[in-house]
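Single-chain item
Fold in token form
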Amino acid sequence: MQGSEFAPSATQRESLARHLRGLGGHGGVDFQDVTRLTWEDASFQAVYSGDVLEHVPDYRAALAEFRRVLRPGGVLVATYPFTDAESTVVRAKLTDSGEVMHLLPPEYHGDPISGGVLCFYHFGWDILDEVRDAGFSDARMVMPWDPEGGIYFGNWTLIAKR
């Protein structure tokens, strides 16, 4: 099993690593950019991305990287804000010069280090086409529900097979 986090600066990476150790984590923290993963092709049987893609301006590059590092038959499991609408809501985007252009009022999601991370997207059903365009098959949204396990309100979850 391999985990990864993202923090843009050395100070933030050390702060996040300290925070994770304080939660009981041990070992090093691998800091990766999901649009440029350093792992070899076909390294993993599964990739889990928990509430990450909405913060990635080029989420399509992240999907391509997830596919690249998955073995044939491997599975991507991802969560993110899902609107249950036909189309993805683009809240912000980067200009050609790399500046953030807000198309809707800025929305930030909690982060233990920076306090908040800008949300670029609330995904709609069209994300399934994007996932398939990235080379995945059998892409679908599921809603886990397990009252015996304490899951009474599911969170829409993407399951896609390479």
Remarks:
- The beta strands are 44-50, 70-79, 89-90, 92-94, 100-102, 108-109, 117-118, 121-122, 137-142, 157-161.
- The chain has two domains: 1-31, 41-161.
- The chain has a mean pLDDT of 86.
